[in-house]
Structures are given as structure tokens and as C-alpha cells.
Design a protein that fits this description.
The structure is a homodimer of 113-residue chains. Chain A is 57% helix and 12% strand. The first copy, chain A, has 113 residues and is α+β, with helices and mostly antiparallel strands. The structure holds a DNA duplex (20 and 20 nucleotides). Chains A, B: GO terms for molecular function: DNA binding.
DNA sequence: CTGAATCCCATTGGATACTG
DNA sequence: CAGTATCCAATGGGATTCAG
């Protein structure tokens, strides 16, 4: 890609954001974490349809990207809590923008059909 | 999914929006179309790295979802123009929200590293 | 010029079973 | 409880070729 061009493939910020958001369930996860810490199981319960493997993987990615924090307690039974980082909380803004737009969109779809 | 539950798999608006936005290049395309109509080739030039198949496919999806309009002129050489629909233009809001967040995010990443 | 048609591969996500 | 470990299917996206 970009073979012999002088455009240095500058990474558009939006793409960075999209890569972070990308993943079927990530925004859903963020949504539920927006105002409180949740345990692994609690998240899973709130998102019916997600499998453990996928949930774990998306949580790991979000953690890697600095969107949320994972705290494991050395207890029996084990306890792991997830919460949003400050920058993660700010992503809710995007969620809301999406939501506002989606409502408008669905509204006009109704009219179209 | 949701076998024998009473939750009727309500489609979260945000998911609708995500499905529409989803696709590596869609927001980029929207971005370039935000204030003017563009021809196929013009879009392709503005987005280095995208292949024709993918560009065509993403344009078709956006058209199907009512985000943009395709106008083909029966001329030689052929001319095809793309422009945003009203609801498509409103998606720019989301783009901007993403962008604002992404800038903040990249900023703090710099601090972290 | 503006695509459509094929072929192909990598990645994502899902089903299921197992574990410290 | 909070994950791993496998295996598998679907999809997205890329390279290339063909066509109106």
C-alpha cells in the first residue's frame, strides 16, 4: 500500500478510534460500564448472546487500548472487576452521538416504508 | 440466539448505526462527500489503498442504507456521481464526535509513552 | 471511465468443552 | 467465578481479470 507515494500513510485519528471501537460488542460493553464497575459475570449477563471467549477477547482489547481497567482479586472464588478509564468514559460521547443519529435514522426509515 | 427467552432481541439503535458505519472505509467516504458530490474516480483517488471491488461494495451498502445517492449518467465516457442524503450528512456529527475523542485519545497516549 | 466477476486468504466471531 | 483451548464458519477485504 502506498508504494512510492509521498503521502506517508498518515493515520487518520478517526481510524484509530474506529479500530478501537471495532468489534461487535465493544460499544455495548462500554455502555454498561459507563457509570459503574462490573464483574465479568455481570457483563456477560447483560449482553445475552456473547460467548465467554469473545467477551474475554473484547475486554482484553479494550484493556490494551486503555479504554478500561481490569482488576483481579486473589480470592476464592476469584473476582475480576472492570471499569472504564477516564478516556474510556469519554467514549460515551461517541456512543451518544451514534445513538442520536440512529434514532433519527430509524425514524425516517419508518417514513420511507 | 435467544431461544425461549422473553427478550425479543430488541435491536439497539446503536447497533443499527454500527452496522451501517461498519466497514473499513465507510466513514472516510462519508467524510469526503460531506460537502460535495464526487465521481467514482475522485473518491478512489482520495482514498489511497482502497480497491475497486471494495469501494464499489461499500458504496453499494451505503446506498442501500440510504446514506448516499448514486446517479449514473448515460454518457460516453460514463459518469457516476455520489452524494450524501440528508440523513447521511447528519452522520458527519458522529464522525466529528469520533474525531474529537480520537484527538484526545492520541494526546493522552503520547503522555502515557 | 466505471464498474462487475472470480478467486483467494486472513481475521473475527461462534460452539463447545475443559480448568485453576 | 473467570476464564482457556479447540475447532469451525462466515465475512471482509485484496489481486486480478473482464466488460459495457
Amino acid at each position: 500500500m502506498n508504494i512510492q507515494t509521498n503521502k506517508p500513510e498518515k493515520v487518520c485519528p478517526v481510524e484509530v478510534a474506529l479500530n478501537i471501537i471495532d468489534g461487535k460488542w465493544k460499544l455495548r460493553i462500554l455502555y454498561f460500564l459507563q457509570d459503574r464497575t462490573l464483574r465479568y459475570n455481570e457483563i456477560q449477563e447483560k449482553i445475552p448472546g456473547i460467548t465467554q471467549k469473545v467477551l474475554t477477547s473484547q475486554l482484553r482489547q479494550l484493556e490494551k487500548d486503555g479504554i478500561l481497567t481490569r482488576r483481579a482479586y486473589a480470592e476464592i472464588p476469584p473476582r475480576v472487576e472492570y471499569s472504564l478509564t477516564p478516556i474510556g468514559k469519554k467514549l460515551i460521547t461517541v456512543y451518544k452521538a451514534l445513538n442520536v443519529w440512529a434514532l433519527e435514522y430509524l425514524d425516517q426509515e419508518l417514513v420511507r416504508n
